[in-house]
Amino acid sequence: MSLPIYATPLEKTWHHIRRILCCLVFLFLIAPILIVIPLSFNAEPYFTFTQKMLSLDPTGFSLRWYDALLTTGMHAPEAARGSSWWRDMWEHAQWISAAKNSMIVGFFSTLLATTLGTLAALGLSRPEMPARRIIMAVLISPMIVPIIITATGLFFFYSSIRIQDWGIPYLGIILAHSILGIPFVIITVTATLVGFDHSLTRAAASMGATPWTTFRSITLPLILPGMISGALFAFVTSFDEVVVVMFIASPDEQTIPRQMWNGIRESISPAILSVATILVVFSVLLLTAVELLRRRSEKMRAADTSI
Amino acid sequence: MADLSANGAITGSNVAVTPLSTTDGRSLKTALAAAQSRAKRRALLLVLPLLLFILISFVLPIGQMLLRSVHNDAFSANMPVLSAWFDENPGKAPDEAAYSALVSDLRQARADKTAGLIGTRVNYDLAGSRSMFTAAARKAPELEPPYRDAVLAINADWGNPALWQAMRSASTPYTANFYLAALDMTRDPQGNIVRVEESRRIYVSHFVKTFVFSGVITAICLILAYPVAHMLATLPLGKSNLLMILVLLPFWTSLLVRTTSWMVLLQEQGVVNNALVATGTVDPANRLSMMYNQTGTVIAMVHILLPFMILPLYAVMRPIKPHYVRAARSLGASSWTAFRQVYLPQTLPGIGAGALLVFILAVGYYITPALVGGASGQMISNFIAYHMQSSLNWSMAAALAAILLAAVLLLYWLYDRLVGIDNIKLG
């Protein structure tokens, strides 16, 4: 965004104004996410900076809200913090069990979405694929259809087939979340397959490789970055999903977003902010992983074209 | 397959008289067709598991749900005798036979405990009628003929033509009444379609509001995203990748986290108000109320949807070479003309892609309006949730959902036409 030397003073001013505007937009994007981090260390039950916090007085900060995350729902939160306290926490603390549920649902729905989504993306990117456009439109549609409509439809569907009585815990949520994650897997995997050189698989086949060997040692390594970032998208989608869970999950199937939703609607306490902080750290880690994968994929592309 | 057909072509050129054939003697045309259909089948086979999964557990449930908007047999299934009377006597005012049918059905309803269901169905069309059905069903066993007088003795409202009109329209399981209601219309006692009274018109205005809201949010996103995407596109790759993290981090952060942060920031006792009071910009007595109204919803939704605008714009702007604008300038165009006539047209695909995507996502938004919208920031999705969870008028929820879905699918089709679904980019 360098300024040409022939710029008039008016253009120079406008250039600087635009720069400031861009910085403000970046601030708008990032500030709300960062603001929860210091606030979650508040010693008082307020959602704003106290005088003590502003003057960086150590007594104004505390870990009490993080502690509250562990102790809420425990049978004996006041007991001495020995092994029995930790066991109690692991088994009974509300947020811990919500986190466990979220992880289970996220893992299995990601697995399902990634497997089915990758297979479909492989088929869709073949030049012979019939009715490609309409099938693609159907497979991407879960991303576009308003979530409340999806949730309502699944609510009636699951109650009509009595999915709760099948005896498989979380089955309904896992299926629903994998539907929501599939578009992301298809988009990322087809993106890595765009420049895919089909003569590579033909070469492997002509040298006697079975289709499975060809897939494992030629196609898979090339699409792996796309698969992993698609899987991460699918996991985040599931990990952040609250509307479908509210409509179809049984009351004991609490997940982190559902617990947060209840916390926000009913009794908002700064404990929510400490959950938010943990989730922000989590998303920073995910973003780093996706960035690294993207660079790796770009490097592989560059290596391909240079040969 | 390529090898086979090549062989065939060579044999064919040597023996010019016979039609082209493969080495095993089949005609080349059929061999190629077989190979192509085999490849087609293979491609389809890879897609099939997912397609079936989506069709069965996503498309079918939504279709089933939408069926509820035109189909509701709570009345017709539980009031068979009266429904038959309505069928036989179209447009006739209720006579003694109708009242006798009513009483016999109500007696059955009392035995089956379905009076509440029936009353709820009629109540959708005529508010306040549910209790009449439950009360009449309770007394139905003791009623003596003539039934007309006996029923009117329980409640004179049973003679109300509007009630009979509502029962008549409920007596067929298929009805368009929920769509009429979703468009703020109703049937008068003569069966004509009229608009409901002024004070009860809520849905049309909320559809309009949802679309205006989404339009405003899209416009704000475009205005904010355009200079940022331009800056990212013209910076050297290393720097722009670094700044891109600031766009992608919100994209990856939980929606509830972002909504919570805005609640914290915008509350009356929140960070923004406190800062404004501390700097003296705002009087402590009248702090700005930015939460639980439209302002809060718009701010939070712009924040959530902004990355969806920046990313497609950036993808389009990055490959644009600066030479065109420079050429325009060297030919004497002012910087505004060069931007308007040279740069802007090249970014139109990005503007279209981003604006449509943001608009589609905004129209169906639920979570943020539900948490920070208050009374004035509610969108049509929130009404669907209300009818699903609180009023339990599922047919109404389905009718609203059908209208919303039609709008979204239309936009989706437009997106596919203009941008192409394959071109959706994430990060």
TrEMBL record, chain A:
A Gene Ontology biological process term: transmembrane transport
Cellular localisation? Cell inner membrane; Cell membrane
- Give the main location: membrane
From the record, what ranges are coiled-coil? none
- Would the keyword Membrane turn up in this protein's UniProt record? yes
Which keywords annotate this record?
A: Cell inner membrane, Cell membrane, Membrane, Transmembrane, Transmembrane helix, Transport
Would the keyword Cell inner membrane turn up in this protein's UniProt record?
yes
* InterPro entries xrefs: MetI-like, MetI-like_sf
Q: Which PROSITE patterns match?
A: ABC_TM1 (PS50928)
A single GO CC term for this protein reads: plasma membrane
- Membrane-topology annotation of the record: Multi-pass membrane protein
Where the record annotates domain ABC transmembrane type-1, the positions are 99-291
TM regions (residue ranges): 20-41, 103-122, 134-158, 170-196, 217-248, 268-293
Q: Record's family?
A: Belongs to the binding-protein-dependent transport system permease family.
Q: What is this protein called?
A: Putative spermidine/putrescine transport system permease protein
What does the organism's lineage look like at the top?
Bacteria, Pseudomonadati, Pseudomonadota, Alphaproteobacteria, Rhodobacterales
Automatic annotation (TrEMBL), chain B:
Source organism: Paracoccus laeviglucosivorans
**Chief localisation class:** membrane
Kindly give the InterPro entries that the UniProt entry links to this protein: MetI-like (IPR000515), MetI-like_sf (IPR035906)
Give a GO biological-process term.
transmembrane transport
Keywords for the protein's UniProt record, in alphabetical order: Cell membrane, Membrane, Transmembrane, Transmembrane helix, Transport
Family statement? Belongs to the binding-protein-dependent transport system permease family. CysTW subfamily.
Q: Which Gene3D superfamilies match?
A: MetI-like
**One GO term of the cellular component aspect?**
plasma membrane
Q: Where is the ABC transmembrane type-1 domain?
A: 207-415
Q: Tell me where it resides.
A: Cell membrane
This protein is called Putative spermidine/putrescine transport system permease protein
Q: How does it sit in the membrane?
A: Multi-pass membrane protein
According to the record, the segments passing through the membrane are 43-63, 211-229, 241-265, 298-316, 350-372, 392-415
Q: Which PROSITE patterns match?
A: ABC_TM1
